[in-house]
Design a protein that fits this description.
12 helices, about 300 residues
Length: about 300
């Protein structure tokens, strides 16, 4: 557990999972995507998570991708694999990730059901009991935790992190306080879509780790923003938000599922054919892809200017 906690820093890379037009896994493209991300300076690879279309992968493709991410990372950065669905299936995916050499797990919300706090606690404790890997909780959708629930889960020796994709900063502050007051310790992550837009607010809570979808297709921009954020260069943060990230979010909001399909479009624009987003997600229209290309070029200009 300590090894992952000590290594899990820097900008977090959530690679897309390439496929062809018939949605068959393109493992060669995935390997190149991971290699490029590691070379660009990511702090960790989170394979087969939300941006990686975890819900659309079968166990064979999932296992192949996690193993490939481990091989391509070659120990330079940790590899964390997504896991989810109901408790039984989540345990099977977790076992596959462990066998493939992953360093940890990101536990997505349980499928379909709306559990109460006791149910959430039992689900994640059972999942953590079933693996030898450290587990990061992911708060979003139907998995919204009360602070006392997180404090109780933090006592589990394999639950090491808490990724917030819900965005209630009051709740997150109370969660951090409850864990601290119970003498617990967790790593905290900003997991909102286009996390750069909320990075200043999360920084105020002491949460500086975040996942960057932008890193998938313009890592130089994502890394420049990350350096500025941690270095206190708020002028650069502001201009990147104004010139790139805010317009990108406005574009992303034009389509359901664009948090994935627009990212894949961005990767394709930058020269790697990762295929379309898998069903049930839909592709952006040509004019939306054109707008994305314009935003990418403007972001690169901003970085050059500064």
């Amino acid at each position: 557990m300590t090894a992952l906690v000590d290594r899990l820093d820097g900008l977090l890379f959530f690679p897309v999972t390439p496929c062809d037009d018939r949605e068959r896994l393109n493992l060669d493209a995935f390997r190149r995507h991971v290699r490029d991300g590691v070379a660009a300076g990511c702090g960790a690879v989170f394979a087969c998570c939300g941006t990686g279309e975890f819900p659309s992968l079968d166990l064979d493709d999932y296992t192949a991708c996690v193993a490939a991410a481990v091989e391509e990372s070659a120990g330079r950065v940790p590899v964390v694999a997504g896991t989810g669905y109901g408790t039984a299936l989540a345990s099977r995916f977790s076992a596959a990730a462990e066998a493939a050499g992953a360093d940890g797990l990101l536990a997505l919300p349980p499928y379909l059901v709306q559990p109460d706090q006791e149910g959430l606690r039992r689900h994640y404790e059972t999942l953590a009991d079933a693996t030898g890997l450290p587990v990061i909780l992911y708060q979003r959708d139907n998995a919204v935790f009360e602070p006392d629930t997180v404090a109780a889960l933090a006592r589990h020796p394999r639950i090491v992190g808490f990724k917030d994709g819900y965005g209630d900063l009051d709740l997150l502050q109370r969660t951090i306080s409850a864990v601290r007051s119970a003498s617990g310790e967790l790593l905290y992550f900003n997991g909102l879509p286009t996390a750069e837009m909320s990075a200043l607010a999360y920084r105020g809570l002491g949460v500086t780790r975040y996942s960057s979808a932008v890193f998938c297709f313009v890592p130089t921009v994502a890394m420049a923003f990350h350096r500025a954020l941690l270095g206190g260069d708020d002028a650069t943060v502001d201009v990147l938000i104004d010139e790139f990230y805010r317009p990108l979010v406005e574009l992303r909001r034009q389509g359901s599922g664009f948090a994935v399909s627009l990212v894949k479009a961005g990767v394709r624009l930058r020269g790697l054919d990762v295929g379309p987003a898998r069903v049930p997600l839909t592709e952006p229209a040509p004019e939306q892809v054109k707008r994305l290309a314009e935003l990418i070029e403007r972001a690169l200009e901003v970085i050059e200017e500064r």
